From TrEMBL:
Keywords annotated in UniProt: Glycosyltransferase, Magnesium, Manganese, Membrane, Metal-binding, Transferase, Transmembrane, Transmembrane helix
Pathway as given in its UniProt record: Protein modification; protein glycosylation
Membrane topology recorded in Swiss-Prot or TrEMBL: Multi-pass membrane protein
Region (Disordered): 455-510, 742-761
Transmembrane annotation, as ranges: 23-43, 93-113, 125-144, 150-168, 180-205, 211-235, 247-272, 278-296, 308-332, 373-393, 400-417, 519-543
Skewed-composition ranges (Basic and acidic residues): 469-505, 752-761
Stated family: Belongs to the STT3 family.
Protein name listed in UniProt: dolichyl-diphosphooligosaccharide--protein glycotransferase
EC number from the UniProt entry: 2.4.99.18
Chemical reaction(s) catalysed: a di-trans,poly-cis-dolichyl diphosphooligosaccharide + L-asparaginyl-[protein] = N(4)-(oligosaccharide-(1->4)-N-acetyl-beta-D-glucosaminyl-(1->4)-N-acetyl-beta-D-glucosaminyl)-L-asparaginyl-[protein] + a di-trans,poly-cis-dolichyl diphosphate + H(+)
Gene3D superfamilies attached to this UniProt entry: 3.40.50.12610
Pfam families: STT3 (PF02516)
Length: 761
């Protein structure tokens, strides 16, 4: 009897060791997560260190201006703000046309800091909002991946997301755009969905709806969530994985989430009236039909159940057909079938170039090139396939969601380069799973083959404890049928008794698992070499991410830099031009420019613009494009009808700055010609080629954009050589009859390597 006593006394020791390991692991995970958050925040500060605390790009200036208004006037005036400084003479209702999540988040942070007597400016809060939420996104990635494959995979995925260049490009300090908070909301919504799916908790389901509401407030990309989750629910139903947990995870999201989404003014009734949301309602009906079938199966006899299923399926099909007919009737009257232009561009990549050139003209709406994948996700592109395979070992509801997420995000990223941002979290999650599983296999193989490790001690203590507990649970489960059989003996109970007798003991089960792991262990040399290769791969990823953060994605587009033999030159021509407009023009003067510069002009020059980056009125943009494409007299008449006093043109031919208006000019022609048929693109092309040299067409050489860009350009070097187009211009000497040059950026005339920016009167 001594042996059983010894065995019984050893079990509590394993439980105690396991508890200590769990506590230590939890504390260690917390500190690792803290360091990952610090890394995510600090790696995005290169732009502030190298330049200054400044807002980047174009759209962030509008968000900054709106946040300033919110902090000064309050939330009520924000919702009712009519902005008369944009889209003159139409204006714009700001409260009903913006996603307010970013603005309200930054405004709340500013209010809290000032309540604590931390007097930070609104601009400072806006600059650092994106780095702060990148740390939160890393935490959300950890939580999501932990629900799928455990804490080790979660920590790995969080570390990868903290540094992935694709996410850094949209979350550096100063990148105050919707994606700054939306990516966190996206990942956190997915985490709460998986958490609800794993637990069946209505509490988490409610939190999931609230997180979805925050996502709707933050970014139009919320439609990705409301389509991906229904796809996963339908996949689970089709593959026979329906459960009450699936119902709890999905039904409250559709009902409560849709009601909350409709509260956002920019969404409103679109939450139930547009085609982007119809898939969620269709799956909502299907899951209720399936739930009803499972319910009646439990209360009816098999014969009655077959009759009832026939009835339910018939009624369900009739209801689905009726709903589909109603939806078809609703969308048939719309030329886009109820889809937005951007959504149609995702479903049909050629749609925008054919029908909506204003969407196709945006650089971030173009499809990515293959090198951009290696630039933005680097080695993760090679780890993703391994992570997908690991998700099938075993395939669970949570891991099937990750597979569906990565598959859809890969497709959408291939259509639009902007959606590389949606791919980044999915790539980090699958890569984290792959790396975690690889490290487990390799370190386990090394443990089994280290000298001095006995056959029984080869199993990890924590895993031994877990296996022993699992074996004891199996014994308890096997005992329950035996107890029941005492009251009602049957063939079924006898069969269970035989199975119980044949059950191996906990100790033999652990030993069997250890032997299996030994058989599956890799050779020691191969394990060590593979482990070192993974470490080198990780080091290469870190170096690339730091380089991308420091050099590729930290330079603000509003501040230009150039390196030469005498050092680094910083050119502040953009802000100089806007400052000139602010100090040398009347408050009520109207400024015309291409829509790219509208947000910056209103935010930095505080002047009224004709069009801006919101691009909500294609006709108004086409009018400006037509003016730029027309001869000088016709352009003057168009601008005069719009009460324009100044025209802003960006020209980079002097220094080789490629993002100037001459390179964007064909889009002005296409958009203008889409509304005004007398503007024809072939008139500006020579044998199908866009040229500005001596072979350029007369229409091109006499249009307003050509004249404003190249006016007195020959005086710079005597040859009028365009460094962007790498050719001498075709028409060098001409005078302006209806426009007068008021100012040009000073550095463009005094130092090569800057852009030329010409406001004209």
């Amino acid at each position: 009897m001594a042996a059983p006593e010894t065995s019984t006394a050893a079990v509590p020791t394993l439980y105690t060791n396991n508890t200590l390991r769990n506590v230590f692991g939890g504390v260690l995970s917390f500190f690792i997560l803290l360091l990952i958050g610090v890394l995510a925040f600090s790696i995005r500060l290169f732009s502030v260190i190298k330049y200054e605390s400044v807002i980047h790009e174009f759209d962030p200036y509008f968000n900054y201006r709106v946040t300033q208004f919110l902090t000064k006037k309050g939330i009520y005036d924000f919702w009712n703000w009519f902005d008369d400084r944009t889209w003159y003479p139409l204006g714009r209702v700001i409260g009903g046309t913006v996603y307010p999540g970013l603005t309200l988040t930054a405004g709340t942070i500013w209010w809290l800091l000032n309540s604590l007597n931390i007097p930070l400016s609104v601009e400072t809060v806006c600059v650092f909002t994106a780095p702060i939420f990148s740390a939160f996104a890393s935490l959300a990635t950890y939580l999501l991946t932990k629900e799928v494959k455990g804490a080790g995979a979660g920590l790995t995925a969080a570390a990868l997301l903290a540094m992935v260049p694709s996410y850094i490009s949209r979350s550096v300090a100063g990148s105050y755009d919707n994606e700054a908070v939306a990516i966190f909301a996206l990942i956190f919504t997915f985490y709460l969905y998986i958490k609800t799916l794993n637990t069946g908790s209505l509490f988490y389901a409610t939190l999931n709806s609230i997180a979805y509401f925050y996502m709707v407030c933050s970014w139009g990309g919320y439609t990705f969530i409301i389509n991906l989750i229904p796809m996963h629910v339908l996949l689970c139903i089709v593959t026979g994985r329906y459960s009450s947990r699936l119902y709890i995870a999905y039904a409250p999201l559709v009902v409560l989430g849709t009601l909350l989404a409709a509260l956002v003014p920019v969404v409103g009734f679109n939450a139930v009236m547009t085609s982007e949301h119809f898939a969620s309602f269709l799956v909502f009906i299907i899951i209720h039909v399936v739930a009803f079938v499972y319910y009646i199966k439990g209360i009816l006899s098999p014969k009655m159940f077959n009759v009832a299923v026939t009835l339910v399926v018939s009624v369900g099909l009739a209801v689905c057909c009726a709903v589909i007919a109603v939806l078809i009737a609703l969308v048939a009257s719309s030329p886009t079938k109820g889809w937005s232009g951007r959504s149609l561009s995702l479903l049909d990549p050629t749609y925008a170039s054919k029908y909506i050139p204003i969407i196709a003209s945006v650089s971030e709406h173009q499809p990515p090139t293959w090198p951009s994948y290696f630039m933005d996700i680097n080695v993760l592109a090679f780890l993703v396939p391994a992570g997908i395979i690991a998700c099938f070992l075993p395939l669970t509801d949570a891991s099937s969601f990750v597979v569906l997420y990565i598959a859809t995000s890969v497709y959408f990223s291939g259509v639009m380069v902007r959606l590389m941002l949606v791919l980044a979290p999915a790539a980090c999650i699958t890569s984290g799973i792959a790396l975690s599983e690889a490290f487990d296999v390799l370190t386990g193989s090394i443990k089994f083959q280290l000298p001095g490790v006995s056959s029984d001690a080869g199993v990890d203590a924590g895993k031994t404890s877990s296996d022993t507990t699992e074996a004891r649970n199996d014994e308890v489960k096997a005992e329950k049928p035996e107890e029941t059989s005492k009251d009602q003996p049957s063939k079924k109970s006898k069969k269970k008794e035989r199975e119980h007798v044949e059950k191996p003991s906990a100790k033999s089960k652990v030993k069997t698992k250890a032997e299996k792991k030994r058989l599956l262990a890799l050779p020691l040399e191969a394990s060590v070499v593979s482990l070192l290769l993974l470490i080198v791969l990780g080091a290469f990823y870190v170096v690339h991410c730091v380089w991308a953060a420091a050099e590729a994605y930290s330079a603000p587009s509003i501040v230009l830099t150039s390196r030469s033999h005498d050092g680094l030159h910083v050119f502040d021509d953009f802000r100089e031009a806007y400052a000139w407009l602010r100090h040398n023009t009347d408050v009520d003067d109207k400024v015309a420019s291409w829509w790219d510069y509208g947000y910056q002009t209103t935010a930095m020059a505080n002047r009224t613009v004709i069009v801006d980056n919101n691009t909500w009125n294609n006709t108004h943009i086409a009018t400006v494009g037509t003016a730029m494409s027309s001869p000088e007299k016709a352009a003057w008449e168009i601008f005069h009808s719009l009460d324009v006093k100044f025209v802003l043109v960006v020209f980079g031919g002097l220094i080789g700055y490629p993002s100037d208006d001459i390179n964007k000019f064909l889009w002005m022609v296409r958009i203008g010609g889409g509304v005004f048929p007398h503007i024809k693109e072939p008139d500006y092309l020579r044998d199908g080629q866009y040229r500005i040299d001596s072979q350029a067409t007369p229409t091109m050489l006499n249009c307003l954009m050509y004249k404003l860009s190249y006016y007195r350009f020959v005086e710079t070097d005597g040859k009028a050589y365009d460094r962007v187009r790498r050719t001498e211009i075709g028409k060098k000497y001409f005078k302006l009859t209806h426009f007068e040059e008021k100012t040009s950026s000073t550095s463009s005339s005094k130092r090569s390597g800057t852009e030329k920016k010409n406001p004209w009167h």
